[in-house]
Amino acid sequence: MASLPFLSQLKQHNKDQLKVQSKDACNKKANIFIDTKVASNAKPPDTDLEKIDCPYKCGVAPFYKCDNHVAIAHASEMLPGKLYLGNKDNAESRTELKRMGITDIINVTTEEAQNFLKEYSYTNYEIDDMGDVKIGEYFNLINRKIEELIENKKVVLVHCLHGRSRSATIVIAFVMYYMKMSKDDAYNYVKKRRQFIEPRPEFHKELLQYEKELHSKS
Ligand SMILES: [Zn+2]
After folding, report:
1. Which domain covers residue 48, as residue numbers?
2. Does the residue 189 lie in any domain?
3. 8 A C-beta contact, residue 44 and residue 36
4. Which of 26, 58, 66, 160 is catalytic?
5. What is the pTM of this model?
6. Separation of 113 CA from ligand 1 center, angstroms?
7. Which of 11, 28, 133, 209 is the most buried (most CB within 10 A)?
8. CA of 141 to the centre of ligand 1 (A)
């Protein structure tokens, strides 16, 4: 059950699911302590970790700075007031969408767009979470869509299940296109704003291919 999105785990407050998630999102060998009061089995992490409250006051407080609660529970700002990267829960949370001022949601999972929130516009590109998926075939299509939206003063959230591989790859491709960055620079740009990202190795190759494509056009 460890793959349940963070906020779903939180909502369910199920001890077994809330225990500890292993992590590799930061250099310190710590685990994600979602809520140590609930996760009674969890050992406290190293005491040198700084304890902070969630800046978005979502009720998970305090958390340990290197535990990356913010990256896991909340969407991350990519282009201020224009573009955000997050997970499925973010896309379904009015609180979270309101916090960012989102108007349009781009869902890059094979799960149907969660268009039950009638006040938001959802677009779904069905990208499977598999290494043999040619994610590069979507880059131009989605980049033009995002560009059109932000030029029309819309605020866009791109999400997949965790906001880690598929949607991160899509956002890196957009940064390459829109900000005319190399693949490595765009990756670092996104990683700096969402330390948690980890595109599949195959997706890295697709981004390198896209870099060549963009370069040949310029
Ligand atoms: Zn929070």
Report:
1. 6-65
2. yes
3. yes
4. 160
5. 0.77
6. 24
7. 133
8. 33
